[in-house]
Specification:
CATH architecture: Up-down Bundle
Number of strands: 2
Strand order of the largest sheet: 1-2
Number of domains: 1
Number of helices: 16
Shape: globular
Order of helices and strands: EEHHHHHHHHHHHHHHHH
Distance between the termini: 53 Å
Length: about 425
């Protein structure tokens, strides 16, 4: 095994390998980019329509479900810092290549479905700005994002990081201006908890929590770029926790400002919900926030496609998918064949299914994956396999698995 001192690139048996070029800030911005772009700009209207003034509780529930699983990923990524992380974790925990492949394919499906959902959300904002038909916008968005993903990991993540800074600025602006112009933002906080003893209210909250869960999907994508991060055993756990904490704070704040500023019916029916919120809280043209929302959603597409293509690459590199998907192009240093596969699958999904169906399917598949990942760490810990990095108590993966299964059960019962 050799390494290029300038790029951190590893090469095994003459095969071009992925380059370790990402530091902690870029890793955090990658995690925030896939999480925030995938969630709040796209699904805030749908969540508000289901839970009304109680929508912040739905986002809090989703964060609570995510927390133990985030800790589990933080330990597992230090044990196995590889692409196609979830598949590797499940394979090691259950000692099953078939189950590893199944989970890897599910992770790829999550990336594709999520990118497709965000593509439809992005098209809604672009249509609001340009007046073009979404049926024309969606294919163009997916294909351009596929080209950026194929460009190079540092280049594509740097583009995504820049977009992440812009999208977070837009969310902070909505929070600050909304709180400044609407004193009711603070006075009406008790409404979040009012009526939560009602079965009908909580049914709406739990229904919204499945969509809110989609909004938090992203931190686990960091595990799938582990082979391109410097010192992954030390930096990845930090990036995972920072991503979850910052996303939770932004989500709950933005959702509440939006609900105070705009009636739930208007939010639910809007194709560009945060543009509508910005217009109501500032009285200004929504053009600026619409542009920011387009940047945010495009960013989400890029990072999901990066993640999905790395999962395909990782599975092929281990011999579980055809070898042509496990090659890295010597010029771009990216898995071009895997990226092409993900781009085509995203395009088909985005043109075939509505956004809520894509988001709910993504959430359900992700919950299944997370349950398997948590169970894998339970089995690894029972075998007393040592960990030299970050480690959680034995009960954490048990709780994480139980919460994922419980949310799935509530969804099925509902």
């Amino acid at each position: 095994m050799g390494a290029d001192a300038a790029t951190g690139t590893r090469a095994t048996n003459g095969k071009t390998a992925l380059a370790r070029t990402l530091n902690l800030p870029l890793a955090i911005l990658f995690g925030l980019g896939v999480t925030i772009g995938a969630g709040i700009y796209v699904l805030i209207g749908s969540a508000a329509g289901r839970a009304g003034m109680h929508a912040p509780i739905a986002f809090l529930i989703a964060a609570v479900v995510m927390a133990p699983t985030a800790a589990v990923f933080a330990e597992l990524v230090t044990r196995m810092p590889v692409s196609a992380g979830e598949a590797a974790y499940v394979g090691a925990g259950f000692n099953s290549r078939r189950l590893s492949l199944l989970v890897g394919l599910m992770v790829m499906a999550v990336g594709v479905l999520s990118a497709a959902a965000i593509s439809r959300g992005s098209a809604g904002y672009i249509a609001a700005l340009t007046g073009a038909r979404t049926s024309h916008i969606i294919p163009a968005v997916v294909l351009v994002m596929g080209l950026i993903t194929a460009w190079g990991i540092k280049e594509s993540v740097t583009v995504a990081a820049t977009m992440t800074v812009i999208e977070i600025t837009g969310l902070v602006a909505i929070i600050v201006v909304g709180a400044w112009n609407s004193p009711a933002v603070f006075a009406r906080i008790p409404e979040v908890w009012s009526g939560t003893t009602s079965l009908a209210v909580m049914s709406g909250v739990f229904s919204a929590s499945l969509l809110a869960f989609f909004a938090f999907i992203g931190f686990e994508s960091l595990a799938n770029i582990a082979e391109e991060i410097k010192e992954p055993e030390r930096l990845l756990p930090r990036a995972i926790f920072w991503t979850l904490v910052l996303s939770t704070l932004l989500y709950i704040s933005v959702v509440w400002v939006a609900l105070v500023a705009v009636p739930r019916e208007d939010l639910a029916s809007s194709g560009a919900p945060l543009s509508l919120v910005f217009e109501r809280v500032t009285g200004a043209s929504p053009t600026l926030i619409t542009v920011i929302a387009i940047v945010a959603t495009i960013n989400g597409i890029i990072v999901q496609m990066v993640m999905a293509s790395r999962v395909v690459y990782g599975l092929a590199d281990k011999g579980e998918l055809p070898a042509l998907f496990g090659t890295v192009h010597p010029l771009t240093r990216t898995p071009l064949n895997a990226t092409l596969l993900v781009t085509v699958a995203t395009l088909v999904s985005a043109t075939a299914f509505p956004i809520e169906a894509l988001a709910e399917a993504t959430s359900r598949v992700t919950l299944v994956i997370f349950a398997f990942v948590n169970a894998s760490l339970v089995l690894i810990k029972r075998r007393r396999e040592p960990s030299t990095g970050f480690a959680v108590p034995d009960w954490v993966p048990m709780v994480g698995c139980g919460l994922c299964v419980a949310l799935l059960a509530i969804d099925v019962a509902g």
